[in-house]
Write a structure and sequence with these properties.
The protein has 246 residues and is of the alpha+beta class. The chain has seven helices and twelve strands. A six-stranded antiparallel beta sheet has the order 5-4-1-3-2-6, with helices on both faces. Strands 7, 8, 9, 10, 11 and 12 form a six-stranded mixed beta sheet that branches. The radius of gyration is 18 Å and the shape is globular. The relative contact order is 0.16.
Length: 246
């Protein structure tokens, strides 16, 4: 089995659910086909008045295990879903690449999209040079920029946060660290200094647990809690997590 990275961007308008929602729906479709979705990450790109975007200018990337010879079928499934599900007025883009084929130039494109205004032509030419499938599906196809950037940032393994990871979105309340490892796809649960939490530590995940992508791992960040008889740790607040995943 090989790991494919599937980047999607600009599937929405102001009245519809965002690209993150569409990415999760696509993930469910791929799982129904018998494929393993390892996780879906959100990647923040440059917010600039010269860039047309719906709300936050973020894109999403699905990491999916599939046989290499199923690339054409994977591309067809994603293309058909997004072409149908993307909102009126959207400029949806789709990128599908083997992680092993996502080299330094693609990863650098992703980093550049966080600080520079890039063009569709540059994205399409870069993808062509590296044999990566990249196409616009609706509107003017402007989402190709964010789709390629999402793949590059996901391949770089140190950007973004997980908007889907097995078992995580269903979490509410207090768990031991051991149970979280057992029930979810989390790789690490640690404090901001990188210290791993003990297996018997009790952690309040609240209502918004969002792991971040660090060194290729899904990492849930936590902070110590004082004077709480029910738990010793809690996940970092939403705004702090957003800071660490941007």
């Amino acid at each position: 089995m090989d790991l494919f990275l599937i980047g999607v961007d600009d599937t929405d308008n102001l009245e519809t659910r965002g690209t993150g929602f569409r990415a999760r729906e696509l993930g469910l479709l791929l799982q129904a086909m018998g494929l393993c979705v390892e996780g879906i990450t959100r990647h923040q790109l440059l917010v600039d008045p010269r860039i047309p975007y719906t709300s936050h200018n973020s894109s999403a990337c699905l990491a999916v295990c599939a046989p290499q010879d199923e690339l054409d079928q994977l591309l067809k499934t994603c293309r058909e879903y997004l072409a149908e599900a993307s909102a009126p007025g959207s400029d949806a883009g789709l990128c599908v690449s083997l992680q092993s084929a996502t080299g330094a130039a693609i990863r650098q494109f992703g980093q550049s999209a966080k600080s520079q205004v890039l063009t569709q032509a540059a994205a399409l030419e870069l993808a062509r040079q590296h044999g990566i499938a990249l196409e616009g599906l609706t509107g003017d196809g402007g989402g190709v920029i964010g789709a390629l950037a999402a793949v590059g940032l996901r391949a770089d393994q140190n950007d973004g946060r997980f908007i889907w990871l097995a078992g995580v979105r269903e979490l509410r309340g207090i768990y031991t660290v051991r149970k979280l490892y057992d029930q979810t796809g989390l790789h690490q649960i640690c404090g901001l200094d990188g210290t791993m939490l003990p297996m018997d530590a009790r952690l309040d995940v609240g209502e918004w647990p969002r792991p971040v992508l660090r060194n290729g791992h899904a990492v849930l960040l936590a902070e110590a809690v004082q004077d709480n008889a029910d738990c010793e740790w809690r996940v970092l607040p939403k705004q702090v997590i957003k800071h660490y995943s941007s």
